[in-house]
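User: I'm writing a tutorial on reading structure tokens. Could you give me a worked example: one chain, its sequence, then its tokens, then a sentence or two explaining what the tokens reveal?
Assistant: Sure. Here is the example chain.
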Amino acid sequence: MSNGSRQAASGWIARISALFVLAFLTALSPPAGAAQDEAYRRAGDLAAYLGVLPAAVVRGHPAGHPEGAMHGGAPRGRHDYHLVVALFDAASGARIEDAAVTATISGLGHVGGRRLQLEPMRIAGTITYGEFVSLPGSDRYTITVEIRRPNQAVPTRVDFTYQHPAR
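And here are its predicted structure tokens:
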């Protein structure tokens, strides 16, 4: 493949990846009267949305693109995913952009779990929180997200269930 063809393909992949991420983030905006489903949880005055995307989406960004370097760069493993959490004030729908967020991930029947510090990410002018994680094989995961806001003594805890398909 010529250098020009490689650049054209890379540009195409970057555009498709950017559109996918923007569509995903738009989907994370809180709809009025959102129903409780697998990707949405409400705890007290907080609404949380969970997304699990293939890490390859982030790898598709061109060199120098800020999203390509987030969390130290996307891993290249076959089972690597990007865990994303969007947080909102449940009453007003305003984004929560000042939280410290962690996630603990454990598979069905596994003892213990992996704890991740989710980093704030500015994408399309909004803040979400994320990190890369390896999710090998088909499994049903419990993802416990802890959100601590400034001056909050006890973090808010939100539990998600995520059925990971075999790839």
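What the tokens reveal: The radius of gyration is 17 Å. Residues 3-36 have pLDDT under 50 and may be disordered.
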